[in-house]
Every structure is written in structure tokens, then in C-alpha cells.
Amino acid sequence: MxxxxxxxxxxxxxxxxxGLQFIGLEMGEWTKFLGVDTRRNWFYLPPITLxxxxxxxxxxxxxxxxxxxxxxxxxxxxALLAFPALEDVTGSLRGEYLPRVAAIGLVALxxxxxxxxxxxxxxxxxxxxxxxxxxxxxxVGLIFPTWIFxxxxxxxAQVMGQPLGIxxxxxxxxxxxxxxxxxxxxxxxLGWRGQPADR
Length: 199
Known about the structure:
Radius of gyration: 18 Å
Number of helices: 8
Low-confidence stretches: none
Helix content: 55-70%
Order of helices and strands: HEEHHHHHHH
Structural class: mainly alpha
Strand order of the largest sheet: 1-2
Strand content: under 5%
Shape: globular
Distance between the termini: 16 Å
Number of domains: 1
């Protein structure tokens, strides 16, 4: 998760000059000038998937109540990194930004729902189900931002008139989400085989 958080602020597109090197949070806004449609919102998925996974992990047994709520608040705060500018949300093109706002709202709803679930179940969730819940956001955070980057990169290279590499942000985002997929999948496999999973 630290890799994913770091990737958000690292260079994704290493352009030929400092002003043309874009971090993950800048990619979505910059690529709209290349004619990329609303899929540019996929660049904002890493903070949303990371926030959702942070919230989801609070359902694991053994966490102190105070830590649970601090981690849920942290998850929502991280997701808010993807929030668009207010003038975009209230402007004539707000339809392009509403899916991103809705995804952030999903993280906040999950944080509130986790608290309700915890009270109802007494903090005793089923570990295989909890590990399985990590896999979907991890897959989304791995596949879609990487896919849109690979679509945008050739267009950016054509505009800048030279070949462009792949910045460390892309690699760290992929590695972080992939590690979560592998670890969560391993824990799920242990649960299916009746072996104790990590807590």
C-alpha cells in the first residue's frame, strides 16, 4: 500500500523537460488536451482503490476500535486526493467528473458501512471473505490505470516529438496492486484449504 501511495505522487510520464513530466494525479487533467475521453478518470483510480482497501482491512479481527476508525478516516482522506476541482463539478462538463465523485462516495459509504457491520457482527468477520474483498479493488487499480497510460503514451510521444518511457509511478502502482492481489489470493487459498490465514 505504501508503494501505491508513493506512485500517486511520482512521475508517470517522463517527458523531455521538468514541465513535461507528469505525476499520476496530473495525468488525467493533462491528457484531456490529447483528446482522451472520460476514461482519463482511470488515472485517478489508485487513491480510490487504496482508500477502499484501507477501509476494507479494518474488518479484520484483532484491531483496536480506535485504530479501526483512524484507518477508515485515512482511507477516505486518501480517496479524496482524486476529488476534482469544484469548478469542474459544478460546471457544464460535470458529467465527466461525477463518476469519480461517486467512486469517492463509495469509499466513504464503505467506511460507514464497515462501522455498522462491525457493530452487527461484533468485529468477527470471516477471513476468507475479507481477503476476497481485497482482490476486486486491487485488480481495478492494477489494470485500468495501466491500460489508459499505455493508450495515452503513444499520443503524448507524438505531441512531444520523441519516444517517452514509463515513469516509476506506473511501475510502483502496478507492483503495489499486484502484491496485494498475490497476498490476498494466497490468504484466500489458505482459507479454502482450511489452513489458518494471517490476521
